Amino acid sequence: MKTALFLICSAIYYVTSASSTVSSFCPTYLPHRISLFFGGGGGGGGKITSSPTKLFIVSEEDVIKLVEEAEDLWAKAYEARKIANELSEKAEAMGKDAEVSTTDAMQALKESISKEKIEDATNAQNLSLELGSLLDEAVRAQQEADEIEERAEKALVASETALEQHFIDFPENNE
Predict the structure, then answer these.
(1) DSSP symbols for 6-70
(2) Whether 7 contacts 14, CB under 8 Å
């Protein structure tokens, strides 16, 4: 009899603690939580006791907090995207200037070499280097904006989920 009770207790413990079955045996969904205590005496006998379930309800304040976090992230994402777009536009304009400057310098050096023409070529080269730095900065800004938008999207989903749960927890507020 003790062996049978031990096996039943072990099975219940395994089912309620197995991580692969958490969604179907989550304490929130059980009418009560089962705890096992194995006493001394070497007999391996245990007793099953039940304790109250911990319920996690979503309050209106919880929903408001999540919505505000999502709004803040979307505002940051908008600002980051604006900066990234400005950098891209600036890089595009600088790229056109660098192309013209480089073409003019190459054409001038084909005719003859002078100190002035070498300075023009150096300026064209420096402009191209600045363009490369600006492009790197624009790419980083785009990546940062993408990351913020991804976090904002996750925050929005979390707030929508919390709102749905709030209406389940407090159906009288769903009017």
Answers:
(1) HHHHHHHHHHHH-GGGHHHH-TTTSSSEEEEEE-SSSS--EEEEEEPPPP----HHHHHHHHHHH
(2) no
Write the pLDDT tens digit of every residue in 58-96: 999 999 999 999 999 999 999 999 999 999 999 999 999
Pair 41, 68 in one domain = no
Alpha carbons 138 and 142: distance in angstroms, whole number: 6
147 shares a domain with 65: yes
The answer to whether residues 95 and 35 belong to one domain is no
Identify the DSSP state of 173.
Answer: G
Residue-wise pLDDT for 105-131, tens only, equals 888 888 888 888 888 889 989 999 999
- Tally of structural domains, the chain: 2
